[in-house]
Protein: DUF2817 domain-containing protein
Amino acid sequence: MIDYSEYREDSIHGRYITMEMLQENCFPKLKVDTIIIGNSVQGIPIPAFTIGQGKHKILMWSQMHGNESTTTKAVWDLVNFIQSQHETAKSIKEACTLTIVPMLNPDGAKAYTRVNSNQIDLNRDAKNLSQPESVALRTLFQKFEPDFCFNLHDQRTLFSAGRTDNPATVSFLSPASNEQRDITPSRETAMKLIGAMNSLLQKMIPGQVGRYDDGFNDNCVGDTFQMLEVPTVLFEAGHYPNDYEREKTREYIFLAMVEALRTIATDEISDFTKDTYFDIPENEKLFFDVLVKNPRVINKEYKEGEKVGVRYKEVLEGSKINFVPEIAEVGTLEGFYAHRIIEVADTVGLDFNTSHKTIMDLFLSINEK
Structure:
């Protein structure tokens, strides 16, 4: 059993993670050398490093989207574990060679945006390779010649694990490699590996694992690497109840990555089938951050039976991410769920929390939208 608290990298936390933070707090703890695989549009060096000396080669990269930082935190938890003397860590190092890019898009991370400084989504640049960050990753891929790829991301709080009231705390995808979404050998291997991770996670967060839509897009990096016959797994860190900083989710991503590496190291992938992958429910977009019932009590322009669905916009202010409530939908909203439900019983303005606008202020602004 792994005691996660022993390996959690406490120097980085919250949603805002930059290259400067990694260079100050994390890279000095590495027991291996780093290489620079390229530079960002703004000239920030993009480091990578290799741990282990086994025959199974795994390439992983995080923060391709600058505002998706949960997996970056989990990567450094994983590094602490792999560098430890835990028996599983030692077996992984003996059987696997890991090359890790902890932050592919440092410009986007600093600005807390999905895109890079040229406003390009790096995960839609696999064909054109128009950006220096895209070229850096592809060049590393070609030099390293991995046997597996881990593509590490965050997903929004709106996703449910199937048509249920369970949030998709962790989601996976074995990307398609053609428009027909055929189950090629590399795709099937990735499916089996996801099955191994799901088997573990169901013991900890039952019903909170989702499967991402597998529509084919050859501009996406994962689809491209799958086309090149390298089993590729997309990791999506999602919402855990009351965990907007995603400190609990990072633990589950860490444990999933360890289980994947252990499965590879022990040659246990064949213990799973593609059916274990399709047993995972496909994600649905059924969650609001807040669902307000009886808004008519506050504003008579609402109709009887209507509800207000609120989703948070993540806004960088200084070095902190604030969650600003915005009205997303108004209606009966049947079949939708929320991470928080507020039943308005009187005309008293109630706070979302100390950092958010009051419900009263929120509703007074609805007619201006």
